[in-house]
Amino acid sequence: MASLAEPLAPFARLDHPAPLAAEARAAILANPGFGTHFSDHMVSIAWREGQGWHDATIGPRGPIALDPAAAVLHYAQEIFEGLKAYAQADGGIALFRPAANAARFNASARRLAMPELPEDMFVDAVKALVLADRGWLPGGEGASLYLRPFMIATEAFLGVRPAKEYRFLVIASPAGNYFKSGTPAVSIWVSDFTRAAPGGTGAAKCGGNYAASLVPQAEAVARGHDQVVFLDAAEHRWIEELGGMNVYFVFRDGRLVTPPLGGTILPGITRDSLLTLAREQGLTVSEERYALDQWRADAASGELVECFACGTAAVVTAIGRVAGHAGDFTIGSGGPGQITGMLKDRLVAIQRGLAPDTHGWVMKLD
Ligand code: PLP
Ligand code: COI
Q: Which residues have CB under 6 Å of ligand 2?
């Protein structure tokens, strides 16, 4: 696989000959939704065995040509990341912990037998795109420019082995709230399906994990819920994570619990940031297993007072109701609680440059 010592290629820059007209862009930015609109440019970097990373370009966003035998189309050798650029209180623009996304991207690459990308090349690529398309950053509360770096196996070969050619790309999408606006707390469905098993790819951010989550997520939506929550594969008892976010439980005595990283859940950067922020607030936080039966019992007894989902797309979102084959239950008042709100405010204030960045998490781009 690629050595991290490979020299970085400079980006060849090709401006879009016809970027979207300012009025059309403004109409999109006024109501961006999530994941449906895209900025004018994209980054592309190629990798070939023996040559390493080459042909780094930032140019007009558009369709990419792939051989129909490209390995990604057959064996799903694909990984991705998700991070956001945030408008700052001082009028600038910043990324939140992009080096953590770069490190997780390489962890995913190792699990999927793909070449690693030097971390500074990942960050430079993201930065270059944000600066080229900074006019795509929506204003307003909760809005950001969502960045999607990803890597695909492009070699035309149908044998089952790691491909010898790849392409790394970054695209950007103006984003509002992930959940429909005005949702004070989401409702989640406990799936009978399993997301990840020990030894599998649960800790990697690979497209295949999400393909496998589509039927469970569609089932949750068909039953009137917003998200699916998965239990562990072995005992179908321990809460792992949601389809696209990690989960925290808040107890009456102010204790917080989140499921431990053990190879079957995604090591969320928001989850990790909240571990630090909650401890700074004097809260006791532990990473420990928590069972569905206990969740139901604690919600009924009032021992559990709040619960929330967290992730780049979801930020911090209260979970108000839980439903499954064994029945439904409500958490606390069914709406967002105090600690959930406090942690969300702390995190968002740092991301937006409204509170001091004492952990070196914010990378200002201008
Ligand atoms: N879990 C899953 C399955 C996810 O897709 C995500 C989102 O990236 C997360 C957790 C949260 O991770 P992060 O906080 O790094 O966005
Ligand atoms: C993210 O938060 O970046 C994700 O990848 C999760 C998905 C729900 C968009």
A: 82, 244, 311-313
Task: State pLDDT tens for residues 76-106.
Answer: 999 999 999 999 989 999 999 999 999 999 9
- Ligand 2 atom 5: residue of nearest CA: 82
Residue among 342, 366, 338 at smallest CA distance from 353:
366
The listed CATH number (3.90.1150.30, 3.40.50.10070, 3.20.10.10, 3.90.78.10) that belongs to domain 185-351:
3.20.10.10
The ranges of the chain annotated as CATH 3.30.470.10 are 12-175
Q: Which ligand is nearest to the CA of 309?
A: 1
Fold assignment, 12-175: D-amino Acid Aminotransferase; Chain A, domain 1 (3.30.470)
d(CA 151, CA 162): 13
CA of 203 to the centre of ligand 2 (A): 14
pTM for the full model? Answer: 0.96
User: In terms of Cα–Cα distance, which of 343, 338, 347 is closest to 252?
Assistant: 338
Ligand 2 probe mutation, 144, 178, 247, most atoms within 8 A of CB: 178
Residue with tokens 């699916």: 228
